[in-house]
Amino acid sequence: MNLRRDVFQAIADPTRRAILLLLAAQAMTAGAIASNFDTARPTVSKHLQILIECELLKQEPNGREMFYHINAQKMKEIDNFLESFRQLWDKRFNSLEAVMNAHQLKKKKSK
Amino acid sequence: MEQKTKIEALEGRQDLTITRTFDLSVELVYKAHQEAELVAQWMGTKVIQFECHNLGNYRFETEYNGNIVFAANGCFHQVVPNEKIIRTFEMEQACIGASLEILSFEKLTDSSSKLTMHIIYQSEQHRAEQLKMPFAYGLNMAHDKLQEILYSLK
């Protein structure tokens, strides 16, 4: 498994980036994090799980509650921006493919 | 799985190459770059001006909530249908400067093709600024979303 790529997939999602930004300020519980989003709690939990799996977040218990922290070490590793640039173009070209497929269909129909 | 879009940016250079294979004929991929209406659709931007012929100009503008969040312009230097487009590109209000883009369209089979985009920046630093941009932009978008949420809580 290519872990490096997983990290970029993790940060490709806007909600996960928002979670990272939230936690950059302070450690929080899952409930406190979820209260910042309109999305359902299980969805937020899933995002947290992905961030933990690629080591961008760490869990630490405090009393009976579990707090989520940013793993600063791992965040620093995202210094190679090439992958987000590649994903930007990949997205554009995927959309080119979709647009042209639709364009082709429309043309066939009108014939 | 083999990636359809590849990027090569060698250390210490001021250029980079993006390659992409399409499940589309070379004519269709070229058309997607040559017709303003189609460019607007896949680039997700408003096309203000688009003169896709030798020495023609183009300009894009993207609005978000009534503000212009992205604007770029350039000039077509050379356009050879289904083969090649050489154009300049510059993002307005950015520190990346103008770059030269050489697009080569290549037929693989009747229904597949390959696009090679060679982009040359003014310097290694300009290229580095460009590479950082999508990540920074993504963070800003996330930040904006966060801010919206925070406002709605007030």
Structural overview:
Chain A is α+β, with helices and mostly antiparallel strands. Chain A has two domains: 3-79, Winged helix-like DNA-binding domain superfamily/Winged helix DNA-binding domain (Arc Repressor Mutant, subunit A, Orthogonal Bundle); 81-111. Chain A has helices spanning 3-11, 14-25, 30-34, 41-53, 72-76, 82-110, and strands at residues 28-29, 57-62, 65-70. Chain A has a three-stranded antiparallel beta sheet with strand order 1-3-2. Chain A is elongated. Chain A starts with a helix and ends with a helix. Chain B is globular and about 45 Å long. Chain B is an alpha+beta fold and 154 residues long. Chain B has an eight-stranded antiparallel beta sheet with strand order 1-2-8-7-6-5-4-3. Classes of the chains: A alpha+beta (111), B alpha+beta (154). Chain A binds chain B through residues 11-12, 14, 17-18, 20-22, 36-38, 78, 81-82, 84-90, 92-101, 103-104, and chain B through 3-7, 9, 18, 20, 22-24, 28-29, 31-32, 38, 41-44, 115, 130-135, 138-139, 141-143, 145-146, 149-150.
CATH superfamily of chain B: START domain
Largest sheet features of chain A: 3 strands, antiparallel
User: What is the highest CATH level, the class of the largest domain in chain A?
Assistant: Mainly Alpha
Alpha plus pi helix count of chain B? 3
Oligomer: heterodimer
Structural domain tally of chain B: 1
Please give the number of β-strands of chain A.
3
Helix-strand pattern of chain A, N to C?
HHEHHEEHH
Question: Which CATH architecture of the largest domain in chain A would you pick?
Answer: Orthogonal Bundle
Broad shape of chain B: globular
How much of the residues of chain B is beta strand, in percent? Answer: 35-45%
User: What spatial order of strands do you see in the largest sheet of chain B?
Assistant: 1-2-8-7-6-5-4-3
Q: Which sequence of strands runs across the widest sheet of chain A?
A: 1-3-2
CATH class descriptor of chain B: Alpha Beta
Topology of chain B as a string of helices (H) and strands (E): EEHHEEEEEEH
The parts of chain B where pLDDT drops under 50 for at least 5 residues are: none
How many domains make up the 3D coordinates of chain A? 2
User: Radius of gyration of chain A in whole Å, from Cα?
Assistant: 19 Å
Alpha-carbon distance between the two ends of chain A: 48 Å
